[in-house]
Design goal:
The N and C termini lie far apart (41 Å). The chain contains no helices and 11 strands. A hairpin with a 6-residue loop joins strand 4 and strand 5. Helix content is 0%, strand content 55%. The model has no long low-confidence stretch (mean pLDDT 96). The strands form 2 sheets. Strands 2, 4, 5, 6, 9, 10 and 11 form a 7-stranded mixed β-sheet that branches. The chain has a 4-stranded antiparallel β-sheet with strand order 1-3-8-7, with no helix packed on it. The chain has strands spanning 3-7, 10-13, 18-25, 34-39, 46-51, 57-59, 67-72, 77-82, 91-99, 102-105, 109-114. The protein is mostly beta strands.
Length: 115
């Protein structure tokens, strides 16, 4: 019914950038709050930020100023632009949404940052 598919992860050196994408199927992103999370090995899942139906964005302090969330309504896609990446940013990154009182998660995309 609702499927979220992340892509864009990979290996990057510290200081580099990556742009993650989340394509939504079965829901319209402009009508939902879309979130980004990450989970590093041995760590709890961490909230990174979200974009509301009005386009307002909110970010966790850990990534504020480095990460930017945007969307392309025509492509039904949410983006996470990550700049000045650090080794501690290494994690699996997930997009998330709430639709009809149910939570949906993507499969995740791996981001690895080397020194």
């Amino acid at each position: 019914q609702v499927q979220l598919v992340e892509s864009g992860g990979g290996l990057v050196q510290a200081g580099g950038s990556l742009r993650l994408s989340c394509v939504a199927f079965g829901t319209i992103i402009s009508s939902n709050v879309m979130d980004w999370y990450r989970q590093a090995p041995g760590k709890q899942r961490e909230f990174l930020g979200e974009i509301s139906s009005s386009g307002t964005t909110t970010y966790a302090n850990s990534v504020k100023g480095r990460f930017t969330i945007s969307r392309d309504n025509a492509k039904n896609t949410v983006y996470l632009q990550m700049n000045n990446l650090r080794p501690e940013d290494t994690a699996v990154y997930y997009c998330h949404t709430l639709r009809a009182f149910r939570y949906y998660w993507g499969q995740g995309t791996q981001v690895t940052v080397s020194s």
